[in-house]
Specification:
The structure is a homodimer. By secondary structure, chain A is of the alpha/beta class. Chain A has helices at 11-23, 37-49, 72-76, 90-103, 118-122, 156-168, 185-201, 207-221, 227-234, 239-247, 266-280, 285-305, 310-322, 357-374, 379-383, 456-469; strands spanning 4-8, 27-31, 66-68, 81-84, 109-111, 131-136, 145-149, 172-175, 337-343, 386-397, 406-416, 420-429, 432-445, 450-451. Chain A is globular and about 80 Å long. Chains A, B: Belongs to the 3-hydroxyacyl-CoA dehydrogenase family. L-carnitine dehydrogenase subfamily.
């Protein structure tokens, strides 16, 4: 049965939380007295559906159900996790917690607050031990960071449970060990913001020039390594201490205006707003959101390919979810074996709107890998020193797989001997074959790098399948060379 | 004839400049009295060769020649551009400029200084009008940003010329209109650095926690949109002024400790160095550099796919070079075209420790996509409704590509007609072909889903290449079917 998340307070942040829970298979109950709440959350949800699944290489679970509740009580009843994202007013948050805690007991209550410390949130609460900060970053359905800030009054077990829930919805919970205004990340943003305001006010740089100074330089670095790791590298062979010795003295130079806060008056506001319009006004906000999300997907998939940073978080999330699927067992029947099931994911689509070429071969690999596992030649066998390698592949690109298509991979054995498997794989959408791949696999002793007979127990599983398939019609495409007349 | 860049002062920054010029086809003359200069620059060059070409979808020009000169005079004689990257000491820089200007007149002299204003650099110079700041970001051979800061004494034509040169080597020159300590970007880094030091000193966060707070959240955003554009989106429908109205008041909250500078003593240095070792010590600096570079390539290619930010800079650079590639008739040589460069990434490796099957097809797609762009059948052409589809592929899996291998994709045209391209792609590690892919592409009218002749302007680029390749030996593997006797 799906678990339930209660989202108290909508908008961009509450909507982002709702989307992340929902798309990870949780039921979501929303309470927000704003009559526009359902519309606003719907817009965030649309953005999220267009983006979050593109991070995944495992089919998404079925979406949960989302309900917009008439009362806060209804929203939190039976919830396994509660996230508060109302306006940044302490008195309002206190009232909300009081209401929540009349209907819910022992359930973690995370607050999206950027400004208040957990001890402030916990003041006068019926049960302070379950209230903590869980501060996300926009867009909440894409960026993994959630700063989790307990206080001395927090129940450590509740905090650990909250962190585990956040991991289960694909986030990276950063446990902030000492509560402090604005937690960690926003303190840096605040510092940069002040400096940027001075530069705009003093006419040194426009909003656009400031933004380019960020995204064409250190901004690119900070998506993959933070401040200290970057400087460690800069210290080079001489090391971090050398870097610090060089850099430390700069602190006393009059580089920043950080001693003062610029006066935030109408003149400054108009200046910034005007420059921002000139810089970004050619796109609507919705367009900018979609552009941002696609860029972030690109970055995060790049890190996923490299098993680094936010990409590592994605891989772990896939792994956790993959474990809940069970591979269908296959028997040696007189039909091609259905060995793989997959869904064409947003990240598999090229600029033509179709599945990229290489994904067909990926789909075939999923199919042949499943076949090798079936005959006992999977990872453990490989670890012992022998493996079936693909020697040759012939692909017929017959049709187009589109976003969302459910595909199966089937395998027909064309022929075997003690060293080789000659196979015909079909990637199908229902009965339509979108691609076929004829492949020759060669069994190799990996230590000496030479072909050799497969183990008797593997051949004992392989041969009956080959015999069962011997009566199947030979595919027309088998034996083709490129450009052969049809 | 290749142009000449003089690099005065080596190290990570000078070496990065040398690499960027060299790999973009300039001759480079280096002067640095450090006996280790050639070795250190060699290491930067090795990193750059492993990284910079991976950003390109146009064959790289021939590398320039690099010379390590015995005197500064020899380095700057005949140079078209001079970049100074000596230590951050004003008296030293003044001496260097004086020496340069005895041997060079009218040539732009950019300084990599992060700390000095151009007017300070120009003090007592023989010709101040050609001296300016050109401040890059590490790694200089990858990150596009160069802050170009003139002073009131600068010659505007020299500044424009310098900016054009920087664009020609693939950079994004940001013209800083008013000189100021640390220019623009480093002012932000300094602000964050101070805040981070306080957090470490006060035990609120370790170096690792700070770095995760950056790279799991806003760091990812800042690689594609800067501060103001991000906040514009956050302001949503209500707009920037609404966002500012909400955010402005926060400035008076006691969020930052920026009023003070933490004392930079041995104790703090040891604390930071120790935490940094714990965080990052499992990798050597060289390993971290390579990881960083591959991550940055991933980000920048993701932006390139989306024609955004730093990716737009790369596309414009390719476009500029493609024009000279055609003019030089380089496409009509009698050799297979080297069209793609890539490195086998951690995410491409299967349980055998080798590159997964589907990645060979991915590598081939990168190669054929680059070919299609070369003949004018890239994204814009596809957007207008026609596209070359892959109809059939035959893969010979010949060798194993391993983690870290640098691969090139070459394409040999076997035959063409008005609707088809018959191509032979080799994926190579150096001279060793690890996989070959024979492919038939079919030109299709996407609206009606039928094959049709390609546009005349595409055929006009395709046919000369086909003719130039007609004399190449036909690959043995062409025309094979699976299981054919060798």
């Amino acid at each position: 049965m799906a678990r339930k998340a209660a989202i108290i307070g909508g908008g961009v942040i509450g909507g982002g939380w709702a989307a992340r829970f929902l798309l990870n298979g949780w039921d979501v109950a929303v309470f927000d007295p704003d009559p526009q709440a359902e519309r606003k959350i719907g817009e965030v949800m649309a953005n999220a559906r267009a983006a979050l699944p593109a991070l995944s290489d495992v089919p998404m679970p079925a979406e949960g159900r989302i309900t917009f509740c008439g009362t806060l009580t209804e929203a939190v009843e039976g919830a396994d996790y509660i996230q508060e994202s109302v306006s940044e007013r302490l008195d309002l948050k206190h009232r909300v917690f009081a209401q929540i805690q009349q209907a819910s007991h022992g359930v973690p209550i995370g607050s999206s607050t950027s400004g208040f410390k957990p001890s402030e949130l916990q003041e006068n609460a019926a049960d302070p031990s379950v209230i903590f900060v869980a501060h996300p970053f926009n867009p909440v359905y894409l960026l993994p960071l959630a700063e989790v800030v307990p206080s001395a009054r927090s129940d450590a077990k509740v905090i650990e449970k909250a962190k585990e829930i956040l991991r289960e919805i694909g986030m990276f919970p950063l446990h902030v060990r000492k509560e402090i205004d604005a937690h960690i990340a926003d303190r840096f943003l605040e510092a940069v913001w002040r400096e940027a305001l001075w530069l705009v006010k003093d006419g040194v740089a426009t909003t656009e020039e400031i933004d380019e100074a960020i995204r064409m330089g250190f901004g690119l670095r900070w998506g993959q390594m933070g401040l200290f790791e970057t400087y460690r590298i800069a210290g080079g062979e001489a090391g971090m201490k050398h870097f610090l010795a060089q850099f430390g003295p700069c602190l006393t130079w009059p580089w920043t205006k950080l001693m003062d806060v610029p006066e935030f008056n109408d003149e400054l506001v108009d200046l910034i707003a005007g420059q921002s319009d000139a810089q970004s006004g050619k796109y609507s906000i919705r367009e900018l959101e979609r552009i941002r999300d696609q860029n972030l997907i690109g970055f995060m998939r790049a890190l996923k390919d490299r098993n680094w940073g936010a990409g590592k978080v994605l891989l772990e999330h896939d792994e956790r979810r993959r474990a809940t699927f069970h591979d269908a067992g296959a028997a040696a029947t007189g039909a091609p074996l259905v060995l793989a099931n997959m869904q064409v994911l947003p990240g598999w689509i090229d600029y033509n709107g179709h599945m990229t070429e290489s994904r067909y071969l990926f789909a075939a690999s999923e199919t042949s890998d499943a076949f090798l596992r079936l005959i006992g030649a999977g990872m453990d066998y490989v670890a012992a020193g022998h493996s079936y390698y693909t020697a040759e592949t012939h692909i017929m690109h017959l049709g187009e797989a589109k976003l969302g298509d459910r595909l199966t991979g089937t395998l027909q054995v064309l022929g075997v001997d003690e060293k080789r498997i000659h196979a015909f794989i079909r990637i199908q959408r229902g009965d339509t074959v979108v691609a076929s791949l004829e492949q020759m696999f060669l069994h190799v002793d990996m230590k000496v790098g030479k072909a050799c007979p497969a183990a008797p127990e593997v051949l004992a599983r392989l041969n009956p399948i080959a015999q069962a398939h011997a009566g199947l019609p030979r595919p027309d495409a088998a034996g083709r060379h490129v450009g052969q007349r049809k």
